[in-house]
Amino acid sequence: MYLYVEAARIINQVLNKKSSIKNLVFSSTYENKKQLYALTCECLKFRDVLDKILEGSGLLEKEKKFFQGDIILARVLLYEFLLGKGVQHAGKYRMCIMGHRKEINSSMRKILDKQGVRSLRDVVYNHCPDNAATGKTLPKYVRINLIKTDTNTVIENFKQNGWKLLKYQPSNFRETVESLKEREFMQDAHFPDLLVFPGGTDLHENKMCIAGEIIQQDKASCIPAHVLNPEEGAEVIDCCAAPGNKTSHVASLIRNKGKIFAFDKDARRMSTMKKLIGTAGVSCVECLCQDFLTVDPTDPKYSMVEYVLVDPSCSGSGIVNRLNQITDGKDSVSVQRLHQLSRFQISILKHALRFPGVKKVVYSTCSIHPEENEMVVNEVYSQVSDQFELVEIMPNHWLERGAPDHEHSQCFIRLSPDQSLTNGFFVSCFERRKIACSYDSMKKTNACKKKKKKSKAEKFIAKCSDNESESTVSFNQIHVIDSDKMRNEASSAADLLGITNIDSSVEKNKRKRKHEKYDSNIGRVDGRNDSGINAANGKKRKKKRESEKCFQGTENGKNRKEDLIEKNAQLTEQSNVTVQENSKESKSELCNKQADKKKRWEADRGIENEVSTSKQSNDVANKELQQPIGLAKKDLTQAKKRKEVYIVEDYPEKTKFDATICINSHSEKEKKKERKQTKDDTVLNINENVDDIEDITLNTTSVTKQDVQKKKKRKKKKKKSVVGNNYE
Ligand SMILES: C[S@@+](CC[C@H](N)C(=O)[O-])C[C@H]1O[C@@H](n2cnc3c(N)ncnc32)[C@H](O)[C@@H]1O
């Protein structure tokens, strides 16, 4: 049968170090790769004991003609007969084995009796001091795919199918795991989306596994995504993603909301990944079959990426049931190979840290060699320590730290079969440093920025005035739609003219932003969290990213520090607007607030100074900072009631208009008329193309909807004629 012949061929090549099992299985023409892979691996694991049985039974001698010295094929058939599904549908192969079954069985019995065990598996386990070949002692970990289901449902499902859920105290977690018996399972102590089963449990045929609701994944390999801990809606890069276990885990943590750019240069592995993420119902991933080192970090496409996972190719020396260990011995990685790998790992990690918007990078390997772990991270850290810091991962929850005798080893975590009951693994985490800058220097920068803005605001207003009928322009209120930049322009304009009513609601994102407030942490590279899923922060950060869009990463060539300072400047300016508007507040209150704000600003950035302990004043300052611009919510509501403000709400979804200025200085009748007109007809078209944010102030023209439609028609006609010309 082709399966047996193919398995024998692959084993032969692996033993002769021609290629790896995975490569050979993937390139095989045998269709059922899973079956072929499993048989190949198992035959390699049981190689020694199968050889003994062969010797005892004299099978090779007796069937000299049949096997022609092919001991590997004989091993494969013997495995299938004794440990597999039986030599099925295999004609002459089956006849050959069945014809000698008595000798085979008696040979096996002798071995079992000699060792005092009941099965061949026990022979193998007893012969491997660390059980490396079988992985028997390692529990089986099952990750719950939160895109398709939830932990309780999965637990209930197992219980209904006769599995018993074991309870434990944190102090006896390890003992409970080690004592797990058949059809018993438990929840992991560290990660709520992980279940633990007895070693050797095979859930491939389980319905939830087939449906992609649960995924068999070692606990070690689940740690990087948890350490990365992106919030829902986050943008993530997975540099070396295939076959996609960690990618699909990240997708699960962000509940399929956000974006993952998954790179891998190996097309074959990439296609496996596509299948895996397809089964897992992951749709937020863009698979990019590309060498990650060739990706341009300044490409605007990646400007919103804040999280990067670096899980590069490594020696795999931590994988305990790695077949290379069976074929080559435990320390089979040569010095030269280690050197090559570590050079590659350094370059990938350095490249990951080049993405301008990135704030967290997790580097992991399934290697036990410091050359691929601590040494790589420390080498890279020495080059980026001005921008990034090494974060202490799970400081109170994980005892096994980086290898001693290496710098920063306290920051890293390692996993091992002995201590963590997992494969050997290494995880480290870089976070972008917080910017420390004094309040005074920040204010100085603000002053410069303000000057520039003033001229921009003047320009803006001049253009607005040009486009509205001069007699009615009073600029009592400004309404800005879907443009952060415009909102800022409007703020400056309002400032300049002493306008009191500013409604900066962003219509297109109205629903998204409804409950979100400006993040008072803006400008800080923050959000550390050891583990767990931080869904609540998700919306907040998404909003922050949206509002930062015009500053961060998109303005190529600008350095991040400047961006952040600008953001802070913006924030202060915006809160100033609020303060100015709040005419009811006394001067002294305002002074107090300013002082509090200064203290808070400096305390946030670790600048040693007196930090205000007054919760009340901090709360006020917080409120102020959270309020981006314009009217307080309650003031806005009142203004709406007084009909001083109206909001153009029902723009059609596909409207191209980004901004409109609404004049509000006439009688109610006129206002109504004007409102209708504004909706239907005259709008100040700030920018037709939302993507061209840079052009917003430049392309300010007044056009009617009819104009736009005409323009579109003209464009269409033009296109048609071009197509026509091509045919000619
Ligand atoms: C350790 S595996 C990644 C495993 C994956 N993170 C997971 O959890 O399933 C390393 C991957 O890196 C890919 N790789 C190696 N060099 C690369 C490069 N320069 N750019 C992108 N991918 C690369 C390999 O093809 C391999 O699939």
UniProtKB/TrEMBL annotation:
One GO MF term, please? RNA binding
Q: Which CDD domains match?
A: AdoMet_MTases (cd02440)
Q: Where is the composition biased (Basic and acidic residues)?
A: 557-566, 599-608, 666-682
The family database entries (Pfam families) matched by this protein are listed as:
Methyltr_RsmB-F, NSUN5_fdxn-like, NSUN5_N
**Superkingdom to which the source organism belongs:** Eukaryota
Q: Where is the composition biased (Polar residues)?
A: 569-581, 610-620, 697-706
Which residues does the record give as S-adenosyl-L-methionine binding sites?
Answer: 240-246, 264, 291, 311
What is the protein name for this chain?
SAM-dependent MTase RsmB/NOP-type domain-containing protein
Lineage of source species:
Eukaryota, Metazoa, Spiralia, Lophotrochozoa, Mollusca
